[in-house]
Amino acid sequence: MSATIVIGADDRSGASVRIDVEELLATRLLVQGNSGSGKSHLLRRILEQSASVVQQVVIDPEGDFVSLAEPFGHVVVDGSAYDGTEIVKLAARIRQHRASVILALDGLELEAQMRCAAVFMNTLFDAPRDQWYPALVVVDEAQMFAPAAAGDVADDVRRLSLAAMTNLMCRGRKRGLAGIIATQRLAKLAKNVAAEASNFLMGRTFLDIDMARAADLLGMERRQAEQIRDLERGHFLALGPAICRRPVGVKIADVETRARNVVHGLMPMPNAAGEEMEALLMAEPLMFDPLPTPPEPEETAPESGELLEQIESSVPAAEQVEPPVEPSLFAAEETAADIAAILAEMAAEPDCTFQPAAQLYQDFTVRCRMQRLGQVGIDLAAFRRRFAMAVAGIPDDREPRWQAALKLAEGVADDLVAPFLVLAVAAVEGLPCPDDDRMAEIYGTRSPGRIRRLLDHLEKSGLIVVRTDYGGRRSIGIPGLGMTTAPVEA
Hints:
InterPro entries: ATPase_Atu1862_pred, HerA-like, HerA_central, P-loop_NTPase. By secondary structure, the chain is α/β, with parallel strands linked by helices.
């Protein structure tokens, strides 16, 4: 199949300038132009015109191209919402089903953008041979993903991203992947990545080093490079087997879509000025409330701490309850409701989880006697479990939707039941993942390190799966339930 698309008109003759898409798949394309030269407009024109011809994958660091989704059927993948494993699975499915997608990375910091894009492109590159379908892979701001020199990012991230871009441009052709890379500065783009392109569209640039490299790629003499500085916005010099055999000036044609939230040209100034504008700016106090005094660090001694817990857990003989007596059928349901109300009341009290279990149990028995419940048949071990349920927000262990979570909790150590059930309840109800402060409150500690060790222990035990996406949001899955919490900032 052969197809050509029109990208614009010849500056001199006005004739249509076309790109042979089939030839482009074999020879790749490099677009260069300073900010404001019309580089994104050119990429959008190519994408719009070829959308019905070939699969498209857009690496979009600024979120400029997501507006293509509705009119042209692209799927927008928000890179900040997924972790590395999920990005790998998504990229594999994209390759398998030949979906045109836009990987939007605007919600991520630079290092996370580079890592996410590298994992994504490497998965496209490593697809099975029977999935080597033709696809245009458009990378905007390519100098970010293939920098010519080390910058502010970690070396391992830079190497990972540069390797992915090199694979795309050097070895991607045999796998059906045709790179279209766009950059503001040729001098900032790795030479081994830029050199693999055989087609060029050079826009306006002003720095001598960039003009010299552009002239070399176009086969022009150095004295002719001055014309690159004089190009107007939306005008490019084109050369390559998929476009034309000699450099030609091209005025890029109009596009159907626009980038989100982009203002072209001037806007009317606001009507408010002077005192009125000052009132708007000063409407709210600028002084923040003073930060709360941080709690004093918890003093813990691991060995003695265990000993103290054993001492606190012991119940004096005078306070030990008699063996539980089976309640009558007539009063059982009413008694269960009263017990649940007492536990819920205790769980709602501030800092209740910081108190020893023995002290809480003694308080519970006193409240039961005040309610004239008599012997309720709950010993210390059963109380710890029931209190953990109340802290987690499970009022009744007979309710069907909690049965699976409570069954899983049977194999959890007594001191970990409440944190586990809090996570399970959030997963069942689709609530955001509890943050570290909430988990510390439930666990009865003020040490963030203990919460990290707690989650690590639960994950190693196979009870939970901790997931942190590229945007830094944490969610926790419960494999035994097949459910996961909503993500929240970690």
